C-alpha cells in the first residue's frame, strides 16, 4: 500500500494550515478527515427562520436526542455539529465538563467559529517567570511572531492597530467602522482608563487572495457561502488541492496511530464513517490535528508494546493540564442615549469590541494572578435577542422591543484558567462511540484563582456599565461551565523537558520523532486571548520545521 510523505489527521484550523504548507513545499500529503465533505455552495447562508419547519431551531425530538446545535435547521449537514448519540463522553462525579460545539466535517470548527483573532503577548510566553505559577512556554513571542505575520497575511484579519503589549499589532486589513453602541462604550471605557478596540476578526473588510469582502448578512454561524470569513473550506484545502500534492480522504474516522517495531509512527487504523469497515493508511510522518481532545483521545487509544500508556506518553503527562477559557460574569443592559434611535444594519461586521487585559500587567493584584479581557457586544442585529429579557405582550411589547433594539449592550469577561495536572482526560473503555472507538472520561477542576478573578471581573463589568449609564436588564455573576467556551488547550503540552511534556517546541513528540501534534493541545498555559490564530501560527511553524527535518532525513 502507498506510503505518503506525510499524513495529516483532521482538516480544521490546524490541519488545514499543515496540509497547505506541506503540499506547497512539495510533500505528498494524505489528509484524513472523519467527517463528510462540504463545499461553500452547500451553505444556507441567507435562509431565514421562516424557511424552516421548526423556525431554524430544530424539532424538539431531535434536540432531545442529538443536542440543540446538531438539531439546527440552517446547518443540515452531517457533522456540522456532532450528534450526541454518536459521540458520547463521560465526566467524573462532581466535575462537569460540557464538551460542546464539536464538529466532524471537512473544515472542522472553522466552518462556524467566531473568527476573533489575537496574538498572544510577549509576557504570555513567560507567565511562570513573572508570577511563579506553572511553566514558561519553550518558545518566545519573537520566535512565533514571523508566523503570526504569515497567518495574518494569508487568512485576512481586520482590526485596528493599538500599540498595546497585551494584544500585539499585526498585519491587519482595514478595520470595520464602529457601531453606535461601540462609540458610547468606548467613551465609558476611556473614563475607566481602558482602551476599547474593535474585535480583530478573520473576516474580510475588502477582497483578499481571491475571496470577496463581507457583505454583512450576519449569517456567519450557518457558514459563509462566499468565503468572506476564513475557513479551511474557503482557503487552505483548495490551496493545498491546487498543488496536486494532496490526497483528501473524508469519512475516515481515525482510531489509532500504528507504530513499527521501534515505536515510530507508520500510519493509522481508521473506520469508514459510512460502512464502518476497518481500514489502514500509511505515511512516513504523522501529523495529528484532530482538535485538542480528539487528538489526545487518538493518542491515548494508541497503545502498543513501545507505548503502553498511550502514544508518546513516557512522561505520563498526555491527557493532563486541560483548560478551557471561562466567562467570568455577564451583564446585559440598555444604553439610554440610543433608545428609540434609528435601527441600522449592525449584522455581520466584526461581532463586537474588546477591552484587552488590564490586570497584573505591572502592579500585582492581591487576590489572583493572570487576567481577563472584556467583550462588548450590542447593536441591532436582525434577531432581537433582548425580547426575552423584557416583560409585556401585544402592541406595547413589540414597540418596546423596537425602541430598545439599537440600545442593547452586553458585556462579559473572558478569563485565563490556570492549568493543573488534576484536570485531565483518560480513556473510558466502557463507553464507545458510533464507530466502536473508546471515548474520553473528562475530569475538570476549577481553581480558586478562577473564582477570585470572577469577583473582580464582575465588579469591573458593573462599573463599566454604570459609567456608560446603562440600565441593567440581566446580571449573571457566575463562571461559565468548563468546556462551554470551546477553547480547549493543554493535554499534549509542549516543553523542553521530555519528563514534563509530550511535545518539543516544534510540536514534535519527544518520544516519536516522526509524530507532530499541531492543535491547541500543545499550550503550556492558556492566556486569555482566543486561541485559533496562535494555533495556526504554531501549526505553520511546526510544518516548516517538519519540512526542513524531512529533507535532511532526520525524521526516520
Ligand atoms: C461556535 C464557536 C465559536 C468559536 N469562536 C472562536 C473565536 O472567535 N476565536 C477563536 O480563536 N476560536 C474560536 N473557536 C474555537 C476554534 O474553532 C478552534 O480553536 C479551532 O477550530 C481549533 O482548530 P483545530 O484544528 O484544533 O480543531 P477543529 O477546527 O475542530 O478541527 C478538527 C478536525 O479534526 C477532525 N477529526 C476529529 N477527530 C477525528 C478523527 N478521529 N479522525 C479524523 N479526523 C478527526 C474533525 O472532524 C475536524 O474537522 C470557536 C469554536 C466554536 C465551535
Ligand atoms: S456576515 Fe460576512 S462573513 Fe458572515 S456570512 Fe455574511 S458575508 Fe460571510
Give structural notes.
There is one protein chain. The chain has a single domain, classed as 3-Layer(bba) Sandwich (FAD/NAD(P)-binding domain). The chain is built from ten helices and 18 strands. Strands 1, 2, 5, 6, 7, 8 and 18 form a seven-stranded mixed beta sheet that branches. It has a six-stranded antiparallel beta sheet with strand order 4-11-12-13-10-16, with helices on one face. A three-stranded mixed beta sheet has the order 3-15-14, with helices on one face. Helix 1 packs parallel to helix 6. The radius of gyration is 23 Å and the shape is globular. The mean pLDDT is 96. Iron/sulfur cluster binds next to loops.
Give keywords:
556 residues; alpha/beta; FAD/NAD(P)-binding domain; 7-stranded mixed sheet; 6-stranded antiparallel sheet; 10 helices; 21% helix; globular; binds flavin-adenine dinucleotide; binds iron/sulfur cluster
